[in-house]
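Notes continue from the previous slide.

Worked example: a multi-chain complex. Inputs as given:
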Amino acid sequence: MRLTSEEADWLAGSAGKAHQLAMRLLVAAGEATGASTFVPIEFAHINSCHYSGQLSVDFAEYLLAEGATLAVPTHTNASLIDQHCPDLRPMERFTTEVAGAQRLMEIYEELGCSAMWSCAPYQEHAGRPEFGQQIVGSESNAVSFFNSALGARTNKYGDMLDISAAVVGRVPLSGLHTDAGRLATHEVAVELDDAVIDDPMLPHLLGILIGQTVGTSIPVISGMGRVDEDGVKAMAAAAATSGGVEMFHIAGVTPEAPTLHDALGGRPARERTTVDSDALQTVRSQLSARSSGPVDAICLGTPHFSITEFAALQSALDGRPISPTVTMLVTTSRAVLAELQLRGWDTSLTESGVQIVLDTCTYYPPRASGVQGTVMTNSAKWAYYAPGMLDVHVAFGRLADCVESAVRGEVTVAGDWDAL
Amino acid sequence: MTTSISGRILHAGSVTAPVLVLDEALSMWGGLDPKTGRILDQQHPQAGMIVAGSIVAMPGSRGSSGTPGVLGESLRNSVGPVGLILTKPDVNLIAGAIVAEALYGCSCPVTLVSSEVLKTLRTGQHVTLGDYDEARREQ
């Protein structure tokens, strides 16, 4: 890499040991990816604050002890724990993990991060970068959402690289930070009836299918003229889960794809795949091990529930209590909770028996209290990870299906299974 | 009988150890137990094998945000690979190796080779990774 004299000095240790280690990580990353220079960033959303073992704490302690400072506004991804709800992952059972997670939360706040603790930072103003901004993202759905829905520019940065970039305020100029690196190479052509296009399950199933189809390439989806922000979020999460997609275009919808031609940069697609309802059915069967029988828990909010999703939940519940045999957990951010409180919805949801969980997610191990047996979700990401990580049986359905199942205590899926 | 391998050095260091050749890229996060060094991913062809003490050679990469932490944690626990041979640069593996060295003094050199070189490697074969510019083969 060609370093400026300032960058070379940092690498030599002029700005302290934390800055130097951050530079070493970033220069190694730049050399590995063939970048020749750094580019300044304006925003970071980091995952290093998520406890992943003693190393994650030791690294953070090192930054703190060596006086690291942040060069850009830096927001925290979800933690392992909900500080407001210690029973979710009790300290007595998971001492090392919970103590580690608590310490990490303290350190990253002390380093100057904004305490967002959310995997969907873009659902609040401060966490929503602007079109064209060079930024750093880490959590896979957020990276894909930043790139795809907002047109902000980031590669997916792993733990320690993300906070290093926030300390240094720059990243190697490569991949999705460049114009050429953002063009689609694959076309996924959606050929579906309007009723299926409007089915809230579609973005989830389509996201999984896209990830399976394109792996880590950049696809453009054609034939899908409308999808709302919650839908784009679901697609981003699902495609990053099954494949590692860091950016996708939806022709006529996302900001860098006014047309199919624009998304592809005028080149023909390297591969073109057609999606029909049979393909979606296959994904649906892969995600759902149960379509009837008792349900023990409902997990919503992967990624963190938005205010519009809460509105849909409110309306589907309509004040009814959920079954006493069911645990219903909805994960969201502090900012969305504040909005719920303003509207008084938190009270009615709590009265119905819904538990609102902050700062964390229910698919991470160790298993959150009440998440056991048969668990229903409307999130393809949750459904994809949970069987392996939590040893539960998953029923996948729409938000409305999850609500009916919660009220009845039985897995309930509306409509003809084969209709989709 | 040791085969001395060099390719592009992604993280410096030198080590001689038996190689463990993986048939597919391993995602460290969820795929490797950093407490035991065992390959946990049940879909992986080498599921159940232990990476501790071996130079792990694998095609491609399946990086995730959790990769640096898991690799670094396995090195901290002395059950991680003692070196990595990759056919595709993986910034997260490099980050894990650099941080484990900076914090704990653990060495895990990372070298990039061609797929052709990877194909010549056999599990159990002794391999040396060092800071050479060209491959040197001893029989």
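Summary box: Chain B has one domain: 2-137. Chain B touches chain A through 32 residues (CB under 8 Å).
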